[in-house]
Amino acid sequence: SARATKPSCGAAASVIRPKPGATVVAIRRAEAMFISPGPYAELYGGDLVIFVGDPEAREAVARFFRNTEAT
Predict the structure, then answer these.
(1) Which of 6, 26, 55, 64 sits between 20 and 30 A of 12, alpha carbons compared?
(2) What is the DSSP letter of 68?
(3) Buried (b) or exposed (e) across 28-50, using 16+ Cβ within 10 A?
(4) What is the predicted pLDDT for the residue at 21?
(5) How far apart are CA 67 and CA 71, in angstroms?
(6) Quick one: which of 53, 29, 25 has its CA closest to 39?
(7) SS3 sequence of 3-63
(8) Residue 26 to residue 71: CA distance in whole angstroms
(9) pLDDT score for 7
(10) What pLDDT is attached to residue 8?
C-alpha cells in the first residue's frame, strides 16, 4: 500500500500505473473503503492506496508518490 500525501491531489487512480503490473485494488479514505475503484477514481491527501504488483511495480509506485510529494 501507499499513502497519497498531497492534500489536493485529485489525480485519477489510473496515473498510479507507472509500469504494467501495478494495479489499484482499493482506496481507503477516512472510514470508507472503495474496492476495485477503476481508473477514474480520484486520489486525495491521506488516501491509503492498496495495490498489487511485483517488486518492480511496488518500487515504481513508491517512486510515483515520492515524486508527487515533492511538487
Answers:
(1) 55
(2) H
(3) bbeeeebeebeeebebeeebebb
(4) 76
(5) 7
(6) 25
(7) ECCCCCCCEEHHHHCCCCCCEEEEEEECCEEEECCCCCCEECCCCEEEEECCHHHHHHHHH
(8) 24
(9) 43
(10) 44
pTM of the entire predicted model:
0.69
Cell output for 61: 509506485
The 10s digit of each residue's pLDDT in 4-29 is 555 445 566 665 554 567 888 899 99
- List Cα–Cα distances, 69 to 5, 31, 59, in angstroms: 7, 23, 15
* Cα distance between residue 14 and residue 39, in whole Å: 4
Angle at 64 between CA 60 and CA 70, to 5 degrees: 145
Q: Give the per-residue pLDDT at 24.
A: 85
- Residue that is written with C-alpha cell 485529485 in the block: 10
